[in-house]
Specification:
Strand content: 35-45%
Subcellular location: Cytoplasm
Helix content: 10-25%
Family: Belongs to the cystatin family.
Number of domains: 1
Radius of gyration: 13 Å
GO molecular function: cysteine-type endopeptidase inhibitor activity
Keywords: Acetylation, Cytoplasm, Protease inhibitor, Thiol protease inhibitor
Protein name: Cystatin domain-containing protein
Order of helices and strands: EHEEEE
Strand order of the largest sheet: 1-2-3-4-5
Amino acid sequence: MQCNVRGGISDTKPATAEIQAIADKVKSQLEEKVNKKYPTFKATEYKSQLVAGTNYFIKVQVEDDDFVHIRVYESLPHENKALALHDYQTNKTKQDELTYF
């Protein structure tokens, strides 16, 4: 799941059940930041970046043609920290490419 080069961002991949679980775990953090509830929250694709842990850039469908991009940080296992929503971009479309943000 992680990219081979430390610091580099992987190619875009279809979202997996694991990526959906990561998105679900930070959904409430995003809803709090944007002051909005998302009845639909479906991860569709992602990129990952290996750092001291892993950054996940996830495209999430929140309505028929409304998407958000979220950046989630997963710390190294020995740090035993919760997943954290580090940044997000709203008003995205299905065609918008995931990029570093």
